[in-house]
Amino acid sequence: MRKTTVAKSNLGQASWYVVDAAQETLGRMASQIARMLMGKHKPTYTPHVDTGDYIVVINAKDVQLTGAKKDKKIYRRHTGHPGGLVETPYTTMQERHPEDIVRLAVRRMLPKTNLGRDMLRKLKVYADDRHEHHAQNPQPLSFGTGRE
User: For 115-121, which contacts have Cβ atoms below 8 Å and span 24 or more sequence positions?
Assistant: First the structure.
């Protein structure tokens, strides 16, 4: 007879990792980060419990895209008013809010539930190489998918 273990919570078991976005491709990096935020890389993964780790992303302003996405990618949002569609090109987002590029890519890969919002809170994104999480001693993490 096999026994299935169900995680109760992630208290005290969450690790901290730091990812340098300058060495990674946006979509490939975002999918791996979403996987780690959900906890799918752990044997204790449980779909209805947040068993993921904390991820600190640095150098978000230097994230890489493949192909012609740098010129063609557009971020869309709606204000809620009639005719309120706001379109922002990738280059403008990179200049004004480089952290949002990574955060949006990861957010759209997480569950669209309260649990997904809790997972997204464990993602810390910084435009340059300075971050304030040195006390947590984050381990460097590389996915090996970027251009060398």
Answer: 115/48, 115/50, 118/50, 119/37, 119/38, 119/50, 119/52, 120/37
Reported CATH class of domain 16-64+98-141: alpha beta
Give the domain ranges of the chain.
16-64+98-141
Tens digit of pLDDT for each residue in 71-93? Answer: 999 999 999 999 999 999 999 99
Alpha-carbon distance of 126 to 146, in angstroms, equals 18
Residue 89 vs residue 12, higher pLDDT = 89
